């Protein structure tokens, strides 16, 4: 059954019906930055909220659909991670399971997404280290499947449709032969690993940072699932690598962030979740290739930068990059 999507004209009535805003003036604005949800900022003078509702079809050129109840998976994941890392995620204010609507507290004024900082050439290794520590805490606290809410435990369908199919299988279909086979083998290896909670979209655009540090929030948990922790590590390393390709003058800073992130994660994860770095880097390569030729290419890369990113991705997938240190060397040397 289709559900009517909220917009700037209907969201206030929805929130009033649920007792979340007052009868006085309310300001509403659409928040950008995403392709998979309706995201609205709402303020009634008492508190600032964010309202999310999943789109059945993503706002991209290619046909790309996903289950709309992933908003409810996000709600459960936020409650789970808030208990593990208090203050590192926004609070859930309300959820409407019939309309798949999630209401969150909004970040304080002045907070910004980390992607904007990175694209501007500001690479703060302290943020990266904090993210590595937060991610390690999530992963280590959830190795027992009994610790996961049912929607997260069963979140593989949204992950398959929003990550595996567009980022692995669709790219592999474009490169038949050994490279395509390696991409598919990497995806299959990931599918066989059910280790812990996985965020699934651990990207700089989904990190909000305070203007004066050290506070930050991780957001956008709609593809959270029980799976392979390597994916979260690879997702962030991929984005740092792409920023280095795009802004070679700042590559040393991005490489420092990658080192800080990987190091903090390895220290926090402990022996049971010691990263399998060859496996992580193969995923980093697959994701890098996907941001060149997949369903959601990195919008900031020029044609020449896409070629450089493609070469890096091939080397990562084929094992030509030995480990995180080797990757950072590649980034700083612009290869």
UniProtKB/TrEMBL annotation:
Residues 28-266 form the Aminoglycoside phosphotransferase domain. It comes from the Bacteria. GO terms for molecular function: ATP binding; kinase activity. The keyword Nucleotide-binding applies. InterPro entries: Aminoglycoside_PTrfase, Kinase-like_dom_sf. Pfam families: APH (PF01636). Gene3D superfamilies: 3.90.1200.10, Phosphorylase Kinase, domain 1. Keywords: ATP-binding, Kinase, Nucleotide-binding, Transferase. Belongs to the methylthioribose kinase family. PANTHER family: METHYLTHIORIBOSE KINASE. This is Phosphotransferase enzyme family protein. The lineage of its organism: Bacteria, Bacillati, Actinomycetota, Actinomycetes, Jiangellales.
């Amino acid at each position: 059954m289709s559900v009517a999507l909220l917009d700037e004209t209907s969201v206030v009535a929805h929130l009033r019906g649920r007792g979340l805003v007052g009868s006085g003036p309310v300001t509403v604005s659409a928040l950008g930055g995403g392709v998979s949800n309706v995201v609205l900022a709402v303020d009634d003078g008492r508190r600032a909220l964010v309202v999310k509702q999943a789109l059945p079809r993503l706002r991209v050129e290619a046909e790309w659909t996903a289950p709309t109840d992933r908003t409810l998976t996000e709600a459960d994941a936020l409650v789970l991670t808030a208990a593990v890392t208090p203050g590192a995620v926004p609070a859930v204010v309300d959820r409407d399971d019939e309309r798949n609507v999630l209401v969150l507290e909004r970040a304080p004024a002045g907070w910004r997404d980390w992607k904007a900082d990175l694209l501007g050439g500001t690479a703060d290794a302290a943020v990266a280290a904090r993210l590595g520590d937060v991610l390690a805490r999530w992963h280590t606290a959830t190795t027992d499947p009994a610790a996961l809410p049912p929607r997260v435990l069963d979140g593989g369908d949204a992950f398959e449709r929003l990550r595996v199919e567009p980022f692995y299988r669709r790219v592999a279909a474009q490169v038949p032969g050994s490279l395509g086979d390696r991409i598919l083998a990497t995806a299959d290896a990931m599918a066989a690993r059910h280790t812990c909670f996985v965020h699934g979209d651990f990207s700089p655009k989904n990190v909000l940072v305070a203007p004066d540090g050290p506070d930050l929030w991780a957001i956008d948990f709609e593809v959270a699932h029980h799976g392979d922790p390597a994916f979260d590590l690879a997702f962030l390393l991929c984005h740092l690598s792409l920023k280095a390709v795009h802004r070679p003058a700042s590559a040393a800073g991005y490489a420092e962030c990658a080192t800080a992130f990987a190091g903090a994660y390895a220290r926090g994860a402990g022996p049971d979740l010691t990263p399998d770095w060859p496996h992580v880097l193969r995923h980093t390569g697959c994701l890098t290739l996907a941001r060149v030729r997949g369903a959601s290419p990195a919008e900031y890369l020029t044609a020449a930068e896409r070629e450089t990113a493609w070469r890096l991705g091939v080397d990562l997938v084929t094992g030509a990059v030995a480990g995180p240190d080797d990757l950072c060397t590649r980034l700083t040397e612009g290869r």
